[in-house]
Amino acid sequence: MRAITIPEFGGADVLRTAEVEVPEPGPGQVAIDVAYAGANFAEVLYRRGVAPVPLPFVPGIEVSGHIRALGPGVTGLHVGRPVAALTIVDSGGYAEVVTTSADLVAPLDGLDLGLDVAAAIPSNSTTAFLVLDRVARIAPGESVLVHAAAGGVGSQLGQAARLLGAGRVVGTVGSPAKIETAKGFGYQEVVLRDEHPAGFDIVVDMVGGEARRTGLDALNPMGRLIVMGNASDADDVGIPANELWFTNKTVSGFNLAAFSAAFPEEAGRALRRAVAAVAAGDLRLRVEELTLDQAAEAHRRIESGTTTGKLVLKVS
């Protein structure tokens, strides 16, 4: 089958189209004929070698398509069923066929969702619900600050916060051109990141560096900083434990791949919750389509920091 591979670590130009073996589903897994694959910053990290993976490696942490085959022990699904799926545990979504745990699949039949939009849901929309509900344990009326509010996951966090009963929901962006875009994703206020807004119960940081430090400073007593990325590629930010002790603040981390591997059933429930929210119109997605052969271009756009919403790759 045709796939995009990472034969060596490096820039976007290292990505190559290759013929690889068609994977077969193991126990508890399904194989999916991929229609679309989402493009994400996580795949950029794989390509750079930041997250170590065996080479050659097929990236791709989320897909939409139709079930091709069922592995031993899988029930409740059938061949041909349209689905959205998280492929984040073992990756492989930039290909014509991918396998993943049946727990990480959301059926789409009966829903008014195109497969292009469905491919944009599993990573970012699922993450938004898990971060706010499971990790931050948001309570009604609490205030939320989200860095990188116009990006893929940022575009979902503001809307999910409102759905979960947040009070004040503020986003930060890196340039004035992104302010109006972010405002369309559920944020009551959008400011430039260097303005350092304060007074929040929850801060979600995908940027790292200075944003991580100012995010901690922006918390109210008993506030929670959720760390879930380092898009700035800055050096790690040390946070003294004694500071957390004296200020009654908490720092938590969230990594969707590790969570999905450890808690696949819970990740799957969050995925199906996200799919239902998008289908109902409660979560809005901005999706731009490229072809699978344009994977390198997708990576360049993501790395440039100019993307808003979500890029998906049309596979078949």
From TrEMBL:
<dbReference type="Pfam" id="PF13602">
    <property type="entry name" value="ADH_zinc_N_2"/>
</dbReference>
<keyword id="KW-0560">Oxidoreductase</keyword>
<feature type="domain" description="Enoyl reductase (ER)">
    <location>
        <begin position="10"/>
        <end position="313"/>
    </location>
</feature>
<protein>
    <submittedName>
        <fullName>Zinc-binding alcohol dehydrogenase family protein</fullName>
    </submittedName>
</protein>
<dbReference type="InterPro" id="IPR020843">
    <property type="entry name" value="ER"/>
</dbReference>
<dbReference type="InterPro" id="IPR036291">
    <property type="entry name" value="NAD(P)-bd_dom_sf"/>
</dbReference>
<dbReference type="Pfam" id="PF08240">
    <property type="entry name" value="ADH_N"/>
</dbReference>
<keyword id="KW-0521">NADP</keyword>
<dbReference type="InterPro" id="IPR011032">
    <property type="entry name" value="GroES-like_sf"/>
</dbReference>
<dbReference type="InterPro" id="IPR002364">
    <property type="entry name" value="Quin_OxRdtase/zeta-crystal_CS"/>
</dbReference>
<dbReference type="InterPro" id="IPR013154">
    <property type="entry name" value="ADH-like_N"/>
</dbReference>
